[in-house]
Amino acid sequence: MNYGICLLNAIPLRIEPNHRSEMISQVLFGELFKILEKSDGWVRIILDEDNYEGWVSHHQIKLLSETEYIAASKEVNRYCHELVSHVQINEDFIPISLGAKILSNERSNIIFGKTLNFECDTIEGCQSKQEIVKTAYYYLNSPHLWGGKTPFGIDAPGFTQMVYRINGYPLLREAYQQASQGEVLSFIEESEPGDLAFFDDEEGNIIHTGIILRNHNIIHCWGEVRIDKIDHSGIFNVRLNKHTHNLRVIKQIFK
Asked: Contact, 90 vs 114, CB < 8 A?
């Protein structure tokens, strides 16, 4: 088995091994993965954090030995908690953004031979729902980007996944996958700020998700990360004066 780590802020994870293929997700700084297959300058990987699979260019990753991978995988999950910052590896300065995974000096010495210096606030461990809501606001007005996971472009399940990940709770990558996690709440009135709401299409497929806020509001990514009203029917867009998403289920990931 071969292993790797991403040492750039965000690289595209694609369906097929070519630059014109659809980007289905991104690999962020510090994310570890296993290499499943190689093909003409591309590698098919499976991410450690959510078991998501896709192709990345071999020019954008760093290969790890098994020893280096094991050392890195033992690291406590610690994330950048600022919109933008940077890390220094050897003589190189690398820009990073919210949600980048920060390795400790002990692990970075094993992997890089020198310490990793960073200039950002970090967060680690399981946080409260109040902190989840605070983190969600960091992404407000971020543009929608299919497959994106950063404040400079993100999609709906990428938004909920990253907000929860930063606060210590692993979510799967797709909205329908996330809907399989946690405990079902019967009514909106049972929910708390920080819980997740899921929305379906006419065929009953779950296609959208967002984070519930106070006063019957929801923060979600639709064109951009935005705040709208939510009721028993779904998301109500005040500007358009209509419902834009049909509510399917509300989930409590943790109490």
From this structure: yes
